[in-house]
Structure formats: structure tokens, C-alpha cells
Amino acid sequence: MRRWLGLAAFLAAVLGIGLFIGATNLPGPWYQGLEKPALTPPNWLFAPAWTTLYVLIAIAGWRTWLLGSASAAFLTWWAQMLLNFAWSPVVFRLHNLGAGAVIILAMLAAILLFLRLTWNRDRIAALCFVPYALWISFAAYLNISLYTLN
Length: 150
Hints:
Layout: H1 2-24, H2 28-32, H3 46-67, H4 72-93, H5 97-118, H6 123-149
Helix pairs in contact: 1-3, 1-4, 3-4, 3-6, 4-5, 5-6
Protein name: Tryptophan-rich sensory protein
Transmembrane segments: 44-62, 74-92, 98-117, 124-144
Membrane topology: Multi-pass membrane protein
């Protein structure tokens, strides 16, 4: 029973906080006025993509927590989560694309480290992070391109 309550807590926390931060840090007119890179996706894509990714991130965090809340993998999961939650306010509220680029590259490094730490220990948790790593790699391209173009 504790296992499933843990999963519910991870899902509620990651989805709840992630969607709250997204809803309270909207791109707005500032972002609309920026010159965009060639591969910028339509705005409607971000909500379903992040909802899906947050479910996967929560599952990976829950599985890693079950293996040990003091493990390097779980601490790395927390590090990437804090960076994830920091990015939107820095970019969309503070309009700081340079700091956003630093944050997203640090987030990508933490995601890749999480993959390395979990790949042999919990392949399911690691596989949950593969789409996330791909999306953040693409998001880093967007962030750095926005910084360069503007």
C-alpha cells in the first residue's frame, strides 16, 4: 500500500507543481515578440508534452525513491527537478534567456547523470527519462537559439 501511495504522491507533486509553474509563468507578449528559431513548435504542443513528461518524471522519481531516498540517483532526480521548476520563472517572468540557457544545460547534465546512475539499477526509471532527455535537448536548442537571435 505504501508503494502506491508513494506513486500517487509523486504524481500529484510533480504534475501539480509543474503545471502550476507552467500556468503562472506563461510566455506572453514578451515571448511572442522574440525572433524564433526555425524549429520552434506551435504553442499548443507544450502543455500535452509537459503533462506526459511530468508523469514519466514522477514515475522515475517514485521508482528511484523506492530504491533509496539517500541514493545518488534520487538526489540527482531532485536536482533536475529543482532546475526544471526554476527554468520557466527565470525565462518567462524575468525574461532572462542567458540564465535560462545555463539552467537548462545544468538540467540536461543532471538528466544525463540520472540516466547513467539508473540505467543498470532500474531500467524502467531510466527509460522514463529518455523522452525527457530528448525534449530538454531540443528545449536547450530553442533556449540557446532564442538567446542568440535576440
